[in-house]
Each structure stands twice: as structure tokens, then as C-alpha cells.
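R.M. (postdoc): so does anyone remember the format we settled on? I'll just put the C-alpha cells first.
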């Protein structure tokens, strides 16, 4: 496990609402974000969807920008080239097309060497596999051959990002965004817990950087902590109380060097408007105290905590995103001062 002292360092979850990559990067690199992330820019269209960005190299995929859907005919695709690349560990095959990654390529044009770390993100195999549909409207995750391709594609996509980002900064974090983990155990995701852990771990193999899972809903956190992650990124604004239901698992995770990434800043216009940095600090301190009361080390949580918005800010108004970034900075500053780190 890659362990660092984060001390309430800040980063972002994927998307921002701006429609200009240069403007978005100016915001990210303004000094308020400890560990900047390349931004997905959904205001530019479906091409900036996290599912398109991770899935665009999959064989036979049809990206319908107008309908905002990704489909594949699982009976008529040719996987020869992608399997050749996977088996030969040809990371260059998974070079990210600039058409789908305006924010990433602007990010790579900037000097990122002075930051504590830089963050990239891919869509995790569960969420990617549930989102893409076959010719019958069924999620391709249930097709054994194609789900294997998704797992390997997620892995190679993450490797390409790590290799590219590590040229900009020696400390890289790759987040595996898995919103669909909140569907496990429901009729919407007929996947066993063991299968989910296996697929996620396989998608993370061979990375030489810090690895995170981000889930912006409620899920079985004990299951997530069974995966080979260094950082657990969760929606602390809405679901911190559910993390407190797993004190033993959280404590063990922290003791082996794991990090909690608290999504304490809301990511909806109404919630952003109703909150202040002070109100979020109060909420965060209460959430930490709830774990401390159950035996989790406060010292470890201070050392091994990061802060983010609860989810991507892409859906909100730009002025709301501006306020969210300001609150994120202020919450981090206040927490550092309070705990003397």
C-alpha cells in the first residue's frame, strides 16, 4: 500500500461545469487545490462523459453523441487488435484521444511539478460494464467475454494515464470511479460481492501509484475495503454516518496505511448555496468524532485524510462550482489549523 501523510490535502472528483479547458485549468491550478486533477468537461458534450473516456478504445463500441448512449453488438466485434495490445502490454494502444479529453490534454500542457501529487481517473469496471449496452439493451457486464475486455481496458487505460501523468509529477493518484457500487445487492446489478472485488482488483493490477475508489452513493464499505486500494473516496456530505457503521474495517485500513478521502463539499447548486465553510467544518469534525468514539484513531485520520467535493461538479452552475472550490480550500485550511498539521 502506497502510504503518504495527506493532512487534509484537497483534490477533485472528475468533472467541472466550465466549457473551456484553459479556463478550467486556470481554476484548478490557482493554488486552492493541493493535488490537482484533470477535469472532465461535460458542458462540451457527451464526448467528455467518463464512460466514453474509458470505453472509447473498446472493440465495436458505438458512441451515439445525440442519444448519449454507448452500445456494442457483442456478436460482431473484432477483438484481435485490443487483445494483442493487452497481451503485449502495449500501453500506447490506449493513448487517450484528444477528442474525448480536452481537459486532460490542457492539464498535460501545464507545469504540475510543484504540487504534492496529481490525480487522474478512469471509470471502474463495474460502472463501465453496467453502462454500456449490447444489441438487446442488456448491460455488457453480463457477457463473459466482453466483461473481460472491459476489465483489461480499464487496467490499460489507467496504466497509460499513470505513465503520462508521472512525467508531470512523481506522485500520481489514479481514482477508479465506481458510482454503480451503490447498486450491488439490488436487482440492477446481479453481481456477487466476490466477483465485484475480483474484477476491481484485476482492473488495478500493475499500477505503480496510489490507487483510489470513488463511490458517490451508499454501499457496503466493508466490501470496498476488501479491494486493493490505498484511498477510499466517499460522499461524506451525505453518507459519513454509513462509514461509521464499519469502524473495525476502517481502523484496519488506516493502520495498514490507507487514506480516507472525505467528499465533504456538496455538489448540487442548492446544497452549495446553503452551506458555508464553517458549516462543512462542523459536519466534518462530527463525522470524524463519530469514528473516534468507535475506536478509530484520530491521529491516523488526521494524517491520512484528504478532502474533495462529494462528487463531480460538472452538473452545477459555474458560479456554484467557484463557491465549492473556495469552500474546499477553506475547509482544508481550517482543519489543518485546528489539528496543527
Amino acid at each position: 500500500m502506497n502510504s503518504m501523510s495527506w493532512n487534509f490535502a484537497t483534490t477533485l472528483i472528475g468533472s467541472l461545469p466550465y466549457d473551456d479547458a484553459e479556463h478550467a485549468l486556470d481554476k484548478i491550478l490557482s493554488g486552492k487545490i493541493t493535488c490537482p486533477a484533470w477535469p472532465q468537461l461535460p458542458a462540451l458534450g457527451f464526448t467528455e462523459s467518463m464512460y466514453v473516456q474509458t470505453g472509447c478504445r473498446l472493440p465495436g463500441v458505438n458512441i451515439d453523441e445525440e442519444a448519449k448512449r454507448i452500445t456494442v453488438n457483442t456478436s460482431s466485434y473484432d477483438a484481435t487488435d485490443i487483445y494483442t495490445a493487452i497481451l503485449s502490454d502495449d500501453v500506447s494502444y490506449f493513448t487517450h484521444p484528444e477528442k474525448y479529453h480536452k481537459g486532460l490534454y490542457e492539464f498535460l500542457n501545464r507545469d504540475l511539478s510543484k504540487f504534492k501529487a496529481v490525480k487522474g481517473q478512469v471509470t471502474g469496471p463495474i460502472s463501465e460494464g453496467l453502462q454500456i449496452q449490447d444489441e438487446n439493451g442488456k448491460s455488457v457486464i453480463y457477457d463473459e467475454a466482453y466483461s473481460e475486455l472491459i476489465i483489461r481496458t480499464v487496467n490499460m487505460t489507467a496504466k497509460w494515464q499513470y505513465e503520462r501523468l508521472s512525467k508531470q509529477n512523481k506522485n500520481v493518484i489514479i481514482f477508479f470511479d465506481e458510482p454503480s457500487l451503490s447498486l450491488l445487492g439490488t436487482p440492477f446489478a446481479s453481481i456477487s460481492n466476490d466477483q465485484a472485488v475480483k474484477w476491481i482488483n484485476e482492473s488495478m493490477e500493475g499500477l505503480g501509484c496510489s490507487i483510489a475508489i470513488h463511490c458517490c452513493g451508499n454501499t457496503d464499505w466493508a466490501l470496498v475495503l476488501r479491494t486493493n486500494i490505498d484511498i477510499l473516496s466517499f460522499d461524506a456530505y451525505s453518507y459519513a454516518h454509513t462509514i461509521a457503521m464499519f469502524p473495525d474495517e476502517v481502523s484496519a485500513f488506516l493502520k495498514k496505511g490507507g487514506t480516507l478521502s472525505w467528499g465533504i463539499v456538496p455538489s448540487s447548486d442548492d446544497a452549495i448555496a446553503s452551506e458555508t465553510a464553517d458549516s462543512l467544518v462542523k459536519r466534518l469534525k462530527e463525522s470524524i468524532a463519530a469514528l473516534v468514539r468507535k475506536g478509530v484513531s484520530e491521529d491516523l485520520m488526521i494524517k491520512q485524510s484528504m478532502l474533495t467535493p462529494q462528487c463531480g461538479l460538472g452538473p452545477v452552475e459555474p458560479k456554484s462550482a467557484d463557491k465549492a472550490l473556495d469552500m474546499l480550500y477553506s475547509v482544508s485550511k481550517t482543519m489543518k489549523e485546528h489539528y496543527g498539521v
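R.M.: ...and that's the designed sequence above, right after the C-alpha cells. Also worth knowing: The CA atoms of residues 270 and 320 lie 9 Å apart. The chain has a mean pLDDT of 96.
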